[in-house]
Amino acid sequence: MSKIRTTHTGSLPRPKQILEAVREHFATGKAMDEAMLARTVGDVVRKQVEAGIDIVTDGEMSKPSFFHYLSERLEGFAPREPKVKGRVVGPMDLDGRDAIQFPDYYAGFEKHSPFENTIRVAPRACVAPIKYMGRKFLERDITNLKQAMAKVGVRDGFMPAASPLPFMANEHYKSDEEYFEAYGEAMREEYKAILDAGFTLQVDDPRMVSAWDSFKDMTLAQYRKWMQGRIAHINHALRGLPAERIRYHTCYGVNFGPRVSDLQLDDVLDLLFTINAGFYSFEAANPRHDHEWRVLAKIKLPNGKKLIPGAVTHSNVTIEHPEVVADRMQRWIEAAGAQNVLFGNDCGFSSTAGNTEIPETVAFAKLKSLAEGARLAASRVR
Questions:
Q1: Structurally, how many domains does the chain consist of?
Q2: Which residues contact 232 (CB under 8 A, 6 or more apart)?
Q3: Using CA atoms, how far apart are residues 228 and 330, in angstroms rounded to an integer?
Q4: Residue 6, by phi and psi: left (phi above 0), alpha (psi -120 to 50) or beta?
Q5: Full-prediction pTM beyond 0.85?
Q6: How do residues 125-143 score in pLDDT, each as one tens digit?
Q7: For residue 293, which of 342, 346, 343, 332 has the smallest C-alpha distance?
Q8: Helix runs in 197-321, H state only
Q9: Would you say residue 3 lies in a domain?
Q10: Is residue 2 part of a domain?
Q11: Average pLDDT in the 38-46 region?
Q12: What pLDDT, in 10s, does the model give residues 171-192?
């Protein structure tokens, strides 16, 4: 096999200078140093290429998180006091299924949270009609990524964007249906601009599968029904857009926890395939999901659908040996077909800027191992 292509899920650790600039911008409204941001994007794209990554992005350098960047891109929202104050524990539910089973682990996590220095953005509520107002920020990010890619001679890029499903409370629209539709229409403007710029669009939707941990009273059947409702809204927001240029990313959780409560791929994959996307990015490299290539023996891959399994994980700092990475890739290729897979990491290395779980050196070492594993796997597959 001549080539196995590599990518990742988007967020990378922010260098200290840009982290503090983004923190100040979202805390005070102070304008970003645009020249510094452009240089940082240039550096992070170069490092991806040097690591051997084929399909790159800007590392989400301008964003405080995969979601909270929308505070400056969507009109119609107002800040609200957080319901829970105190120590920041990140995307962890301390009352979730996993925390109930492993209270000592989660108590320690709360005391020594790696999310302590993350950028905090106040919760918001919808208080007026939703409109997209972030075009200048989006165009800046598009320009920075294009220029960085041109400088290092890489052709293929993607840009993540938040799911068209709101997290925030609705205090304006008469029904959730109206609220979800208005929110999706606003996000659609961002999606179309990314596609029009020539990039692949990645729709980030971690909650689709990870919310299971918090919904302790739901059965799997009830949860799947909840997923179907969300998928209908996603597809409405993506209607008419080219599925072959859309990646959908979800995950089981973005923490280092025991993760025994995670759903399994065969619980949800059939529903994920109903989303209007051509590529599906998901966790496949951590110890709770490393076996799930076997699901493809049960669920036939629909025509036109391709997979982006994680071949290195975000859920621990151990750098995977390239031989291990190649073994994972080979199993997925044999299960799904070489033409139907490319490989990335499980989830973002820094979905919330300032998270210290995966340092910058570790993130790029993992990406390098991903690329080295792809070369090894390609030499094995005929």
A1: 1
A2: none
A3: 32
A4: beta
A5: yes
A6: 999 999 999 999 999 999 9
A7: 332
A8: 207-210, 220-237, 265-272
A9: no
A10: no
A11: 98
A12: 999 999 999 999 999 999 999 9
Q: Is the pLDDT of residue 102 over 70?
A: yes
How do residues 227-247 score in pLDDT, each as one tens digit?
Answer: 999 999 999 999 999 999 999
The C-alpha atoms of residue 302 and residue 4 are separated, in whole angstroms, by: 21
List Cβ neighbours of 224 (8 Å cut-off, separation of 6 or more): 267, 268, 271
Main-chain phi, psi angles of 360, to 5 degrees: -60, -45
**Is residue 75 in a domain?**
yes
332-365 residue pLDDT tens:
999 999 999 999 999 999 988 888 889 999 999 9
- CATH code of residue 358: 3.20.20.210
> Do residues 176 and 229 lie in contact, with contact meaning Cβ atoms separated by under 8 Å?
no
Cα–Cα distance measured from residue 83 to residue 191, given in angstroms and rounded to the nearest whole number: 31
At 105, give phi and psi (nearest 5°): -65, -50
**Residue 191 domain flag:** yes
| Nearest-angstrom CA–CA distance, 284 and 373 | 15
Q: How far is CA 125 from the centre of its chain?
A: 23
Parent domain of 167: 16-380
DSSP assignment string, 227-238? HHHHHHHHHHHT
Amino acid occupying residue 285: A
Neighbours of 57 (CB within 10 A): 28
Q: Which residue has the tokens 């990491």?
A: 345
The helix-helix angle for 34-51 and 16-28 (nearest 10°) equals 140
Distance linking the first and last C-alpha atoms of the chain: 5
As a whole number of angstroms, the distance between CA 166 and CA 126 comes to 10
CA 96 to chain centre: 21
